[in-house]
Amino acid sequence: MSDTNSKKVKITLNGKEIEAPAGQNLLDAADANGVEIPRYCYHPGLSVAGQCRMCMVEVEGNPKLQIGCNIRCSDGLKVISDSEKVKNAVKWSLEYHLVNHPIDCPICDQAGECGLQEYYMEHGQYKSDMHEQKVNKQKVVDLGDHIVLDKERCILCSRCVRFTQEISKTSEFGIFNRGDRSVIGTVDDKPLTGNYQVNTVDICPVGALTSKDFRFEQRVWFLDETESVCSGCSKGCNVFVHHKKGKHIYRLKPRFNEAVNSYWMCDKGRYTYKDSNYDRRLSNAKMAGVDIPYSEAIQTWASDLRVLVATERTDEIGVWISPHHSNEELNSILDTFSGKLKVTKFYSENIEQIVQKDESVDGFLLRSDPYPNSKGFLSTLQGKKVKTQSTDDLIQTIKKGGVSHIVLICPEGQRILPEMLKISKVLSPFQFVIVLTPQLAAMEIFSAALSLPTLGHYEKTGTFINHAGIVQHTAAGFKMFKESHSVTDILNDLMIAQAKPAETRERMAT
Ligand code: SF4
Ligand code: SF4
Ligand code: FES
Q1: Which of 276, 365, 426, 436 has the fewest CB atoms within 10 Å of its CB?
Q2: Is beta strand 16-21 parallel, antiparallel or unpaired with respect to 286-287?
Q3: CA distance 27 to 39
């Protein structure tokens, strides 16, 4: 773990003078200046182990090569990482890593993002001088719910060992035996525990640790990468969304943010992408369970609204919202209903209470507030002077006939479904119900309603405020279904249709 301070020092790297924070790890300083020093065991989020000997450099005043990962930047330091002497040392370090490594690349899930493959192309000596047979080790070791271990592919970098010692504090991984019989593993191959297991897959530089959820699903070179923020709790861990042309999400990977999640994320959050995929998604507008064109759905909704506006009965509208929405979505919801339509009846869970009680669940990342934007929700509502009542209040109001036009802006995720089920039980055929949701299950609960598909969390472009008040941006730029739209776009179309019914446009695929 880098231990830097704000003071800058001057060092010379490959003959070029550069500035770096005093105490910065040499490998990080080199990265920041576009010089790549190979490494397997070094990880900026873990302690230095000096295990792999790939980061050899020449240091002025020192007759022998040194490992770069154990050097801190100080004034006057002079380092060479591109001499023939260094290249030769790296080539032989790599050769030793490959002595017992299986020829698994065609069937290995790490292919395409494997440190061995990448460095072999760059630093390999190509013609092997080894005559001895490879040492065979155990393959396909089941380590519980999330991970499969291949002991033969492991290069004993000890990143996973240090992760479980230093970060998850579960101390499950160890290196057992000696010499070329050394193997990575857990005691008696016991399954891993806890909510942070898959981080070890992220940091394993080779295909020794693979994720059960991702293995054999997709080759990494077919995946596109988009920046987002996890939807699983108020921590707001920064993530990369790996998807194939925006049509299917295959995995989430943590994205470094020192102020929020460092290099890590939890397993619960890691699987939130599943709610975005085809089998759980509402892909078309539906009226009473039957597919209808988007424009027809908007016209149908606008017609009912027009009657309420014309007869000054917009106080019969009730709107249920949640902090799953981005700040931009919340703004457009409130501008439309509170601002333009003068709606006063808004409902949600008791978000103030959720925020007051929000705390770390495990002393690390996961928090008790299950929403990605509770703070944004409260500040947007406060800014617009809107107050929400509880879901139970909505239920009572429905029972009393106090609302005839009910808009449920229901996010993805199983957690919200019991609330929706409670509402559905008290509805009568006299109420016009509109469900805006990305979720198939939500549409099924309100099977008699008008349902419009919205974007899933990882398709959104917008801002979210995490538990610490940090405003974070998501930049999706893809959508999985032609007929699904952002809440903002849907409400804009609704207001156009409500004012001028003939001008509602048919949305085109993007
Ligand atoms: S399993 Fe992966 S992370 Fe763990 S020691 Fe082996 S190569 Fe390193
Ligand atoms: S801690 Fe929260 S935000 Fe971070 S990955 Fe887990 S569920 Fe997502
Ligand atoms: S990265 Fe320096 S010894 Fe492994």
Answers
A1: 426
A2: unpaired
A3: 8
Q: What top-level class would CATH report for the domain 8-96?
A: alpha beta
Does 46 contact ligand 1 (Cβ within 6 A)?
no
pLDDT tens-place string over residues 275-333: 999 889 999 999 999 999 999 999 999 999 999 999 999 999 999 999 999 999 999 99
Q: What is the DSSP letter of 190?
A: P
Nearest alpha-carbon partner for 472 in 203, 231, 150, 287: 231
Q: What is the pLDDT of residue 3?
A: 58
Q: What is the pLDDT of residue 424?
A: 96
CA 172 to ligand 1 centroid distance, Å: 13
Pocket of ligand 2 (CB under 6 A): 230, 232-233, 235-237, 261, 265-266, 268-269, 365-366
Question: How many Cβ atoms from other residues are within 10 Å of residue 315's Cβ?
Answer: 15
Span from the CA of 35 to the centroid of ligand 2 (angstroms): 33
Neighbouring CB atoms inside 10 A of 211's CB total 19
The structural domains of the chain, with segments of one domain joined by +, span: 8-96, 130-276, 278-503
458 lines ligand 3 (CB under 6 A): no
Residue range 278-503, CATH number: 3.40.50.740
Nearest alpha carbon, ligand 2 atom 1: 366
C-beta 50 within 6 A of ligand 3: yes
Are residues 367 and 358 in contact, defined by beta-carbon separation less than 8 angstroms? yes
Class of domain 130-276: alpha beta
Tally Cβ neighbours within 10 Å of residue 253: 16
Supply the pLDDT for residue 100. 87
Ligand nearest to the CA of 231: 2
Looking up tokens 């004012």, which residue turns up? 499
Kindly state if the Cβ of 151 falls inside 6 Å of ligand 1. no
| Residues 41-66: tens digit of each pLDDT | 999 999 999 999 999 999 999 999 99
d(CA 381, CA 333): 10
pLDDT value at residue 384: 96
Burial of 401 (0-12, 13-18, 19+ CB in 10 A): exposed
Residues of the chain with confidence (pLDDT) below 70: 1-5, 501-510
